[in-house]
Design a protein that fits this description.
Length: 359
């Protein structure tokens, strides 16, 4: 009996538990009208979420989009625009390190791009014309094959017979050429022209020529000198590797190689081969290239005003231990206005400028 009673009691408890009132689920009809969500509101919220996602995606896309910077840039510049330029070049096929430094890699890439593009002067400088050409690649969705214009520098630099390191980018208008860095023996600038300035001779000789940017800058310099009431003559510009070889050999046979190398460069080591140098003189020194030119009105004006036109006195007085050449007040080297002004204001040489920048 006790077992039966226990079973009956358990069944009654189970029934009582099952019959406890449940909390009714709230249907849409039970929600007050003011709190109900209509189908239109539901779709509106979904549309807002979708619009928000699209806006966020568009903002992310804008952040990743690249465009050539609207700036003039050159080797050793450090700026956000440099990073923007690297990203723009990478977008068309290059693989440059994403930094804000205008390094040798970017100089090479700009030069390579300029060589491969029509109507651009290969300078290694990023200018307005280069930007316009780069914008066309973006507009037309084209890409570039890196190295087709200028091969990427080898891991180990080539050396001349004298043991001088050969520069890998002779087109670079800031290239350092001296007794430590030489130009390739087959390098001939492709943009040589004759500047419209006075020469003491009429023959069409190679020494009349300069690279185009330097030639136009020289024309402006001579115009400035003329406005100052001065008269100068351009004496010697471009000089080929072979011509420099002949000149140095003649000087070495007459004065010995070591002494000759204090005033005459070995082949490949002469700035005249760059097409960026010009020797100037005046009637006051009988159109000769002598130190006395530095004491003339023309020489003094040149030392003070040449930087305004992008030139420096390449071998200044008192710097012979650095340049390893004698003082030459007549020897102009084109490096662009920004660099020329800085070098002159600081009273340093191109060698010291390089050393300062790479520290």
């Amino acid at each position: 009996m006790q077992g039966v009673s226990w079973v009956i009691l358990s069944a009654i408890c189970f029934m009582l538990i099952g019959c406890e009132p449940q909390e009714p689920s709230q249907s849409q009809e039970d929600v007050p009208a003011s709190e109900q969500t209509t189908p239109e509101q539901k779709h509106g919220e979904e549309d807002k979420q979708a619009d928000g996602q699209q806006t966020e995606e568009a903002e992310k896309q804008e952040e990743t989009e690249v465009e050539p910077p609207d700036a003039v840039l050159q080797k050793f510049d450090t700026d956000e625009a440099v990073l923007q330029l690297k990203n723009a070049l990478n977008a068309i096929g290059y693989d440059l390190e994403a930094t804000e430094e205008f390094d040798e890699g970017l100089t090479w890439a700009i030069t390579d791009f300029q060589i491969q593009s029509e109507d651009l002067l290969a300078s290694g400088f990023y200018d307005e014309a280069t930007r316009d050409a780069l914008l066309l690649y973006f507009e037309e969705g084209e890409s570039m094959e890196p190295g087709e214009g200028l091969a990427w520098p080898p891991e180990e630099a080539e050396k001349t017979e004298a043991g001088t390191e050969v520069v890998s980018n002779p087109y670079d208008e800031l290239a350092l050429v001296n007794k430590s860095f030489a130009l390739p023996d087959d390098y001939i600038p492709e943009d040589l022209i004759v500047p419209d300035v006075p020469f003491p001779f009429t023959e069409d000789l190679p020494q009349k020529y300069m690279r185009e940017n330097a030639a136009h800058a020289l024309e402006e310099l001579f115009e400035g000198a003329e406005e100052a009431g001065l008269e100068m003559f351009a004496q010697s510009g471009y000089r080929s590797y072979d011509r420099q070889d002949d000149i140095f050999a003649a000087n070495a046979s007459q004065h010995g190689e070591d002494h000759a190398n204090t005033y005459s460069a070995r082949p490949g080591e002469s700035e005249h081969q760059t097409g960026l140098a010009m020797d100037v003189t005046s009637a006051e020194v009988n159109l000769e290239l002598v130190e006395a030119f530095g004491e003339t009105e023309e020489g003094q004006w040149l030392a003070e005003n040449a930087p305004e036109y992008g030139f420096i006195i390449r071998f200044p007085e008192g710097k012979e231990d650095i340049t390893e050449y004698q003082y030459e007040p007549w020897h102009l080297r084109y490096v662009g206005e920004k660099t020329a002004k800085y070098i002159t204001e600081q009273g340093i040489t191109l060698e010291e400028y390089y050393e300062e920048q790479v520290e």
